[in-house]
Structures are given as structure tokens and as C-alpha cells.
Design goal:
7 helices, globular, two-stranded parallel ribbon, alpha/beta
Length: 240
């Protein structure tokens, strides 16, 4: 068994404005847990003080560290951060902390369903979407139709940035990830199904953040292209 129970992996690109509050919130919560933990900020080549903020925070708070990688996209940062983690469970956590960290227990044993991947979902029973514009919600639903059709059938919310993976699932799936953009979630869930790893959704509260880096139109078209690329790579045996 891993010496660390939980790894929190935060992909970050130019997050100097949000990270101090997020790191403090995580620290205050995790210090109250009985299990061992670590927090890894996977810095996607930030051009601001993101890595410096993490290093300064870690000087007085053990368990935090930053890994900096060349700027390639969120998917690339997540992949590198997940593979650098040591936890028995590895929690993917967006830097905006739009899911209250107090709900993390829903994604971990003993409260979580038994699965290799537990997804914090904005569509599962009990979920609440707080402050989200109707137009943004509609675009998300349209995108999910294509995602279920092409990559992750049966998963109502592939893109929410809060997921817990077992170490075994991470070590099996993330080395095969090829996408650096926002469609990496769909690729991982596609590979999980093909490799017989299980996934389950748990309803969470999710607070819309207006400063989100997602650009619905441009990122939406790129993600649709990437969904088709996932299917092509599988059919042409590139994942082997």
C-alpha cells in the first residue's frame, strides 16, 4: 500500500490570483483529516508567480509541492501531475475550487461508490449548479451528447474538474493519454472503459466561476475534433 493515502493534483496556468486562497482552503481542510496526504500543483508553464506562490506556501506547510512543465495545455499538466503523485487515491482538483472541498468525502471510501474512478458530477442525483448562466449550461449539455456518443457513453458529466482515481487506474491509463487539451477527461474515460476500469458519478455542489479559462466556442470545436481523434486512434490501434 502507498505510504500516502491521498494526492491532490491541481493543474494550474497563470493562477497567481486564485491559488493563495485555494491552497489555504485545502490546507485547513486536509489538516483535519486522519489520513496522510500531499498536494501537487502541476504548473503548465505559467508566466506569472504561480510556481513561486506554491514554493513560498510550502515553506511553512509541509505536504505541498509544485512541478513545472512546458506549456502544452491542461491535459498535459494533469497527466504529468497524476503520474508524479504517490497517493493510493489521486484527486484531480481545479484551481478555482468550484466544488466545496468539504464534499471531497463523497468521492472517497467509505462514502463513495466502489469504482476505479469516482467523478464529481454536476448531473448526478443530488447535484447543484450554482450561478451558472443558462447559455453555458446548454452548451455543456450539447457537448456532453457528443462526448457520450463518441467516447464515454453513460457518463453524464465527463468534464467536471473533480475526480478521484485509484493509483492502479492512474498508472494504467495516464501513460496512454495523448491529448493535451480539455478533451483529456473524455480520453481517459474512453480508455478506462476499453481497459475494463469502472467509473461512477456522485452528485456535488458546483459554483460557476465567471473567470473560467474555458472558451466555449473555440474550445468546444477543438474538443469535438479531439473526440473524433480518440476514436480514430483506437480504430488504428495507436493506443497499443
Amino acid at each position: 500500500m502507498s505510504a500516502c493515502y491521498l494526492s491532490v493534483v491541481i493543474p494550474a496556468y497563470n493562477e497567481e490570483g486564485r491559488l493563495p486562497e485555494t491552497l489555504t482552503t485545502l490546507y485547513n481542510y486536509l489538516c483535519g483529516r486522519s489520513y496522510t496526504w500531499e498536494v501537487i500543483v502541476a504548473d503548465d508553464g505559467s508566466e506569472d508567480r504561480t510556481p513561486a506562490i506554491v514554493r513560498e506556501f510550502a515553506q511553512t506547510r509541509p505536504g505541498f509541492r509544485v512541478h513545472t512543465f512546458p506549456h502544452r495545455g491542461k491535459g498535459s499538466a494533469v497527466k504529468q501531475g497524476m503520474l508524479a503523485a504517490r497517493g493510493e487515491y489521486r484527486f484531480l482538483c481545479d484551481a478555482d475550487l468550484s466544488m466545496p472541498i468539504e464534499l471531497l468525502g463523497r468521492l472517497l471510501p467509505p462514502d463513495a461508490p466502489v469504482a476505479d474512478i469516482v467523478i464529481g458530477s454536476r448531473e448526478a442525483p443530488g447535484a447543484r449548479r450554482i450561478g451558472e448562466p443558462r447559455r453555458r449550461r446548454l452548451m455543456g449539455r450539447v457537448f456532453n451528447v457528443f462526448t457520450q456518443l463518441l467516447a464515454a457513453p453513460g457518463i453524464a458529466d465527463t468534464q467536471c474538474g473533480f475526480k478521484v482515481f485509484t493509483a492502479e487506474a492512474v498508472e494504467a491509463l495516464f501513460p496512454q493519454q495523448t491529448l493535451d487539451g480539455f478533451a483529456f477527461d473524455a480520453e481517459i474515460l474512453f480508455l478506462a472503459r476499453k481497459r475494463n476500469y469502472t467509473a461512477s458519478e456522485v452528485g456535488i455542489d458546483w459554483h460557476y466561476r465567471a473567470e473560467s479559462k474555458v472558451r466555449p466556442f473555440r474550445d468546444g470545436w477543438q474538443t469535438l475534433r479531439d473526440l473524433l481523434l480518440i476514436r480514430w486512434r483506437w480504430l488504428t490501434r495507436q493506443y497499443e
